[in-house]
Amino acid sequence: xxxxxxxxxxxxxxxxxxxxxxxxxxxxxxxxxxxxxxxxxxxxxxxxxxxxxxxxxxxxxxxxxxxxxxxxxxxxxxxxxxxxxxxxxxxxxxxxxxxxxxxxxxxxxxxxxxxxxxxxxxxxxxxxxxxxxxxxxxxxxxxxxxxxxxxxxxxxxxxxxxxxxxxxxxxxxxxxxxxxxxxxxxxxxxxxxxxxxxxxxxxxxxxxxxxxxxxxxxxxxxxxxxxxxxxxxxxxxxxxxxxxxxxxxxxxxxxxxxxxxxxxxxxxxxxxxxxxxxxxxxxxxxxxxxxxxxxxxxxxxxxxxxxxxxxxxxxxxxxxxxxxxxxxxxxxxxxxxxxxxxxxxxxxxxxxxxxxxxxxxxxxxxxxxxxxxxxxxxxxxxxxxxxxxxxxxxxxxxxxxxxxxxxxxxxxxxxxxxxxxxxxxxxxxxxxxxxxxxxxxxxxxxxxxxxxxxxxxxxxxxxxxxxxxxxxxxxxxxxxxxxxxxxxxxxxxxxxxxxxxxxxxxxxxxxxxxxxxxxxxxxxxxxxxxxxxxxxxxxxxxxxxxxxxxxxxxxxxxxxxxxxxxxxxxxxxxxxxxxxxxxxxxxxxxxxxxxxxx
Length: 598
Fold this sequence. Notes:
Strand order of the largest sheet: 6-9-10-3-11-12
Low-confidence stretches: 1-11, 117-124, 323-348
Largest sheet: 6 strands, mixed
Structural class: alpha/beta
Shape: elongated
Domain ABC transmembrane type-1: 26-294
Number of strands: 12
Transmembrane segments: 24-50, 62-79, 146-165
Radius of gyration: 34 Å
Distance between the termini: 55 Å
Strand content: 5-15%
Region (Disordered): 321-357
Keywords: ATP-binding, Membrane, Nucleotide-binding, Transmembrane, Transmembrane helix
Mean pLDDT: 77
Number of helices: 20
Organism: Streptomyces sp. JL1001
């Protein structure tokens, strides 16, 4: 879908929101009409003050009409004060609902295999959502008031003098019509600015997160050049927006003076024919100078800046708040070889079926984080029969965590074939996958609740004896006892846990689950080597297919097979085989032994 094509989420976002908050919207509309009473009455009151008062020799009546105009201004201030809380009742819920929608969309898209960068997601959830809140607030305060005031000024002008209204309305309409295509150009350039902002945020975040690797690999100049190019692109996009906005401002400034010029040219004839009195002429001039001209200039300026920016940001957010949106297919082209057409992201499907067994098989599997990016995993073939025990080692960035993501069915490979029990990963029944495959990442999560709630999260029917047995098996029983037993609150309601203690809770949770495939992605990195060995042996003893991603070579010594991931130097075999066949593995073992680590 193109950037310029309106999505249903864009068209109906505010319509649905206003339906849910109909009472506040009706109140805002009603108070806005009352707030615009001075704009409607100002010219009429000025004309009456002159024609019925001062020019008729009745200055007291003239001052009375002027006094009514002052009272109308006070009335307007009171209406604005009453209206302001109602604006808050629309703005704040909108911000809260957008945060919920963006967060939920990110979770759904991640579950469906989307590959959003963390930086872009943070930009949406923080900068862009807060931008929507600020823009909606500003538009409700300014554009709403200006639009109603402009409408009321012409209604008052028509009531004062229909010929003057008929003569001055066309220039205003012409100005608005000329601005529409300019606003579209501005919207396109705003979208380019947002894309550049997201790309810069993502690139900067990735660079800062991996700054040690950048320095270690001597890639400082290349990374600096890449960031400089993104900064330049963002600067050019901002300048393009500024140029277009300036041109719009000039157009509106010229157009807003045309109605007054038309009135001044027509005034002598209208006065001579008696179609317009002196008071009516001054009242019409008041409408145009203090009502129409500033309202027109400000309204178009506000819509051309805040309005276009709001539409652009909402369009960008809608691409991440739609839970059903899938990863767009990448068409082969000059920068994307044909072999990198991605497989369908895993998700619910009518053809989904449970695998025959927990056997895992990879044939020439490749995976890259984005169109045109270098594959993180390229041409990997691997068989993991049920009950296998494999340790994965390799340098940072070699794709170890990516491999566990693929094995867990959280993403589909771009190339090759990945099957679970003979079923392609894109067709695996999700209920089976959630029950039979457990992935424990490096940063273990502890839920707010009791120890019991945490341990049986993946197996709600587990008995207390089963929970304690699994805690004993992985070495977490002492922690459970120290906390005070299974009924002890943990998480936000309990005592703080160290990183290692959280890992023990996650390991016990996975051990008591019915999972037949367990993936430990640095899940024991905060434990000492003895505790790590105990946990790994506990999973191996239950006959589970076990894949361990670890930096400690001691994990490789315990596994029948070891996978060394490192691009073209990827190798698989036993510890003894790899010492002779993989220079990288020999180096890793040598560094480990030299460091004297057990």
